[in-house]
Structures are given as C-alpha cells and as structure tokens.
Amino acid sequence: MTPGTFLTPTRNYVNFMATEPHRLFQNRWFDDPFAMFKPTTTEENFPLMAWNPPCDIYETDKEVVLKFELPEVKRDAVEVTLDNNVLTLKGERKFEEKTDRENYHRIERRYGEFMRSFTLPSYVDAKKINAEFKEGVLTVMLPKTEEARPKHINVKVN
Questions:
Q1: Edge-to-edge strands of the sheet including 55-59?
Q2: Buried/exposed 25-39: b ≥16 CB within 10 Å, e otherwise
Q3: What was the pLDDT predicted at 128?
Q4: pLDDT class for 56, splitting at 50, 70, 90?
Q5: Is the pLDDT of residue 50 over 50?
Q6: I need a surface site. Which of 4, 49, 70, 131 has the fewest CB within 10 A?
Q7: Which residues, including other chains, have CB under 8 Å from residue 77's CB and lie 6 or more apart?
Q8: What local confidence, expressed as pLDDT, does residue 14 receive?
Q9: Do residues 17 and 24 make contact, with C-beta atoms less than 8 angstroms apart?
Q10: Which tens digits make up the pLDDT trace of 109-128?
C-alpha cells in the first residue's frame, strides 16, 4: 500500500456496493438462525457418489474382527483383498433402477462405489484370514499369530 491511499475506496468495494447493497450489513445469522447447524451440501443432492460403509473393529485374545455394514449390497459386488499387509474392501451399492428417481421425496442413503483400506498389525496371521457375509454384514476375522496371543503362566507359591 502506498502512502495516502489507505482511505481511497477500492474498485471491488464499489462493485460490491453496486451489486448487493442490501447485503452490506446483513448477517447470515439473521436470515436463518439455524444455518450454522445445517450442512453446506445436502446429502439428497449427491446420493450417487462414493461412500464409506461404517466399520466396527474389536479384538479378542485370538483375533481382530472387522464388521462392515453393507445393507442391500450383493455378495458378488464385494471384493476383499490383502496386499502388502493392507486389507482393502471394495464394492458398490447400486441405486434401485426399478423405481423412477423422480418419485423419491428424499434420498439420504448413499449409493455407488466404496473402498476402505486398513493396515494390518504385524501380529495378524495373513494365511488364516476368513470373511463371512451374512444379512448385510461383512465380518472379516484376522487371527493372531501364536506368538502374539496372550500366554497364561502358572505361578507357584512356596
């Protein structure tokens, strides 16, 4: 900024005043007091984009278990791979083509391709991984190696 120009109105400010003078002092909060709680993009506008199925991960003494919710996903549309100690789940939930989309009032569930990847801990026995798909839930069991399992040591009292 050169000396003496700090009081000169800028061209952008003048253009802003000419195009939207009513917005100069108006705050969005007064337009809609709940605007801060609303998402900027609505889910119903973008239902056919990539999504991530929810996953629960828990561990027992013998294995690590991953459970994915995949409602209305066909078994043939799911692929589980293991490469370089990374477990990857890929698939697709297709939009029901029987129903005309214009008849929908609201679409909140996501459709389309999905992919989730997890780096496995070093104590997982990759040769014994097992997966089961039942009632829209994919369960992947990652057995622990024998060395990683907890050992019970009997302590004798003398």
A1: 55-59, 63-69, 137-143, 130-134
A2: eeeeeeeeeeeeeee
A3: 93
A4: very high
A5: yes
A6: 4
A7: 91, 92, 93, 94
A8: 43
A9: yes
A10: 788 899 999 999 889 998 99
Domains in the chain: ranges and CATH:
45-148 (2.60.40.790)
CA distances from 136 to 30, 43, 78, 80 (A): 45, 22, 11, 15
Length of the chain: 158
Q: Give Cα 14 distance to the centre of its chain.
A: 44
- Cα separations in angstroms, 113 against 43, 63, 82, 88, 137: 16, 29, 19, 13, 17
Cα separation, 70 vs 95, whole angstroms: 14
Long-range (24+ apart) CB contacts under 8 A made by 72-81 are: 72/136, 73/136, 75/133, 78/133, 78/138, 80/131, 80/138, 80/140
Tokens of 73: 């996903």
Please list the residues that pair with 115 across neighbouring strands: 90
